[in-house]
Amino acid sequence: MKKNNTIRLTLLAFAFLIFGEVFGQVPQVPSEMRFADLTIKINEQARREIQADVDALYRNASYFQVKAERVNLYLPIVERELRAAGVPTDFKYLAIQESSLIADAVSTSNAVGFWQFKQGTAEEVSLRVDSQVDERKNIVASSQGAARYLKKHNAQFNNWMCALVSYQMGLGGAKAYFGTQYNGKKVVEVDRNFHWYFKKFLAHMVAFEAPTVMLASNSGFLEEVQVQGPTTLKALAPRLGVTEAHLKEYNKWSLRGNVPDDRPYSILYIRQGAQKSVPAIASSTQTQASETTYSPPARYISSPPANPYPKITGNTQNSTQPNQIKANDLNAIKAAQNTRQENLAQEVGLKEGKFRRINDLGKNEKILAGEYYYTEPKRSKAEAETHVVKPGETLWSISQMYGIKLSALKAKNRIREDRDLKAGMILNLQDFRPRNEPIPMVPANEYRRIVAGEETSPPSKTLTPKTEAAQNPSTPSTSTAERNANRVIHTVVKGETLFRLSQLYGVSVDDIKKWNNLSDNNIRIGQKITILKP
């Protein structure tokens, strides 16, 4: 026994030694960054201030490692919920800043949980807070609430930086502080007088975006199942193969160990083994990871993979031009770039209001590059009979996928909100579901078969899984980079920025811009970037 303890202590000491060596490489704050759809220019005084915060986060190696392990557990879920709500995934670092991802964190002002909501604000974003349940302590529900809050505030500013600061100041406070000077602006200049909360956020973004975070050695990953009560964590524990104490530790939102019957709740537990080496943050030494690790596929294909929805026909090579393609036999266009609704509506010859109604868009929703938009009204039923919901999907994305009106999709399934949409649900696309008939779920083994037919990696789980890993390489590999003796040609994938590439290859942003004759920090998916070896 003493020999085994000696071996364990030796291995632990070795792990801390390796961590310490890399830990010494504190990431440096650049003079220019990308956040959401903004370019952030940082003057030298502000850069030194932010760097001091990054240094402070790295000062205690053991504390940083503990926090990094929580980051690798929780951020995949946070990122998924932000993406599903249409909020930039960079906001995932705000959850670290707010609570260090501690479920039952409580501030001096009595803000609670992962996203530090006060009770009134929590209720405003549809979180349940009472003597039985406190969804501020549920990473899924609270992330959905935070996304709703941020999206609502961004609609007032059309600037994600202002929306982020409003998270600390409130909407009224942010409006008084910023006025309208940043509304619609895409470049933000940060100096020593800029709001401290945003500078603190940039420090967390730099610190936890860095390769060091991947050194966290989790023994498993968070698995999620949807449970409709009434039941208890004690009753669920043997079914999930864990102890009651384990479920209580990762489900502190259930204040008395009960799962109510008003709607399905997300139950989380640590699943051992599979995917434990895949962190939430990209690293320079990974071969199969990216900023969007654990991101679910954008859409589920209800017919065989060879015949997906939306069905695109016509002159697909000119799909970004008007009157060239049909989606599901309806006139459509593929957005060439992120833009405003009025721009694309004008391009296709429609009034903005009509274009918005055809595509079930909110007034301030952006047009997203690569998405298909209809230029004639969608139908009241789809060609396919049913659709199995995949993680990350929304009612809007499903309606666009099949060319069915959003109101018709909701009415047929008697479902009104995205928060009620669960992975594995079988939605009707043609017939109305009888009143009081619950929406059926795909059996676990059938769900796994469906996902396996679409993805190259096996799904993670069980009843209603929501944490399948999507492989989206962002590190040098045979598929994304071509090497020769002096340089690397890197092909940009989704989520990458010049800053991330600089961290990936250990070079500066300015050098990458110089080598590639780039006039700004904007890069696009599929672009070839030359990296010269240091």
TrEMBL record:
SUPFAM superfamilies: LysM domain, Lysozyme-like. Residues 385-429, 488-531 form the LysM domain. InterPro entries: LysM, LysM_dom_sf, Lysozyme-like_dom_sf, Transglycosylase_SLT_dom_1. Residues 282-295, 455-468 have a biased composition (Low complexity). GO terms for molecular function: lytic endotransglycosylase activity. Residues 280-305, 455-486 are annotated as: Disordered. Residues 469-483 have a biased composition (Polar residues). This is Membrane-bound lytic murein transglycosylase D. It comes from Mariniradius saccharolyticus AK6.
